[in-house]
Amino acid sequence: MSVPLPRARRAAAARPPALLSARAGVGFLLPALAFIALFLLVPFAWIVAVSFTNQSLLGANAQGQFVGLSNYARMFDAATWLPGGFGYSLIVTAIFSLGSLAGQVTLGLTLALLFHGQRGPWREVVFTLVTLCWILPEVPVAFGWLSFLDRDFGLLNVLLRALHLGSPDWTLDHPLAAIILFNIWRGTAFSMLLFSAALASIPPSYLEVAAVSGAGPWRRFWDITLPSIRPQLLSALVLISLWTFNTFGPYLITAGGPLNKTDIVAIHTYRVAFRFGDWGLGTAIAMFTMLLNLLLTAVYLLAARRREPRAGA
Amino acid sequence: MRGREVAARLAFGVVTTLLATFFALPCLWLVLAPFNARATLATVLPSPPSLTNFRAVLGNHDAVVGLLNSGIQALGSMLLTVAVAALAAYALSRARVPGARAFTAVLLMFSSVVSGTVAMVPIYNIILKLGLIDTQLGVILVMTGGLLPTAIFLLLDFVNALPKSYEESAAVCGARPWQYLPQVIFPLIRPGLMVVGVWAFVGVWGSFLTPYILLRSNSNLPASVQAYQFYNDNGQPVLTLVSAYSFLYVLPVLLLYLWVNWRYGFRFFGGIKG
């Protein structure tokens, strides 16, 4: 939800002697370190280790033996690009993530721009509505969407029929489009809130000067607004990609089906590990996903560092 | 000029209304169906409105226990997260820990990478080894572990913003270091504790995957998983019950949101930094 702020730097600049002894500090940190070790570091190490074994949830291989890189080879075996394979699910995830990203950023930016500099009840209503779509628990929201997308009774098809646009069975005929639409709806609030905070921090004089010197709305948007919110745009792009890449939510709409058409990586991992009980393969997939995520984060950090001198100025 | 202004206002009205409609439509069923004694997947005004569905849900033992379990898990994780994160943030801010901020930033990155389904496989195994499968404590511990990095990161800012003179004067008055936290710091960073607490509560209240994987018996399941118990013999959800249950389940989050929005304003405090 609300996200960190850079207040700390100034306080750190001139640091008087520490208030807390090192021993007390360690004592205070101990519970947090225990949690972090148990639920971050151990799982990480475990994923790395098990991905090289043939361990399974139950049965003969419950202990697991070292099998080298064979899980990684199985991940990309001959059938990988067919429905149900890992490669196939990567492609599905790529389409799902790019579609969600484009939709969320465009809608969020549009809403932020439309209501920029506005106050009043209509803004409150719209922002509250969009924000609620984001923070309400995913299970009831998913039921709402199952009703919305229903072929016969769903509100979406009722409207489409009224406009003579046909009434497809969304979760059967266009399942990927359905979960992309669902994810855009769910996640737009984040970019909307982020961008409106960013827009609010642009000094109005910039835009006034541009207007006086004869720049039209488009020019003002491209030359002033967009460059000013570039850092936030970058943050939004990477955070949304990370979240979208790892989201499990669409499982509640399509459960990965039909015919694996919505088998995004999170659902694929769940299926391999918990349904098939194949933990060796499941953790290898998890490792690969983690590396992809790390790559994404690294690109983000590099890009963020490049902008740092400007942000400090 | 005048004409253009009117046209712009009109365009603004049309576009914002369309966007608002897109966000409102999928919620409409959640608001209307619970009050319709013969609810289907159709979004229609209930005529006449009735409370039959709520009576049926509240008469269902598992359903009520599910809501209570959600409360226990959310409250437990919230208290544990806030307590552990506050201790850690205080230590990182006041004891001289070099690179405290970089440490929490790395932790944050790491936790967002090692999260979701990826982590569920080993976490299931850890909870199994601890003998906590199918216990609420297991869910609370796992949720707390996941929430901690962000919670520490958020609270660190609140503690760093406090001048050390507060503790120094407390020390002059004879307070011991372990008294700083409950008697000096906690009251001063209450807004931060509230923000993190509400954020943690809402996150756990809505969680599905973690309890779905770690819990087995009906008496332990939270409302998010319990909602899937309302299926008839044909495998179809009983919509009258599902809708009323969803409504009851959403209500606390809705009220919390409205309260936070009214009290503090729901927005980004200072924007995102990498």
TrEMBL record, chain A:
Pfam families per the UniProt record, alphabetical: BPD_transp_1 (PF00528)
Membrane topology note: Multi-pass membrane protein
Domain ABC transmembrane type-1: 90-300
CDD domains: TM_PBP2
Localization, UniProt: Cell membrane
Keyword check for Transport: yes
Transcription is among the record's keywords: no
TM ranges: 25-49, 86-114, 126-148, 233-253, 279-303
Protein name, as recorded: Multiple sugar transport system permease protein
Species assigned in the record: Deinococcus metallilatus
UniProtKB/TrEMBL annotation, chain B:
Biological processes, Gene Ontology terms: transmembrane transport
Alphabetical UniProt keywords: Cell membrane, Membrane, Sugar transport, Transmembrane, Transmembrane helix, Transport
Any matching Pfam family: BPD_transp_1
Residue ranges annotated for the ABC transmembrane type-1 domain, each copy included: 67-260
Membrane topology note: Multi-pass membrane protein
Listed transmembrane segments: 12-32, 72-93, 105-127, 139-159, 193-214, 238-260
Entry keyword Cytoplasm: no
Coiled coil spans: none
Subcellular localization: Cell membrane
Principal location class: membrane
InterPro entries the UniProt entry points to: BP-dep_ABC_trans_perm, MetI-like, MetI-like_sf
Entries under SUPFAM superfamilies matching the protein: MetI-like
GO CC terms, sorted: plasma membrane
Stored PANTHER family: INNER MEMBRANE ABC TRANSPORTER PERMEASE PROTEIN YCJP, MALTOSE TRANSPORT SYSTEM PERMEASE-RELATED
Family: Belongs to the binding-protein-dependent transport system permease family.
Name of the protein in question: Carbohydrate ABC transporter permease
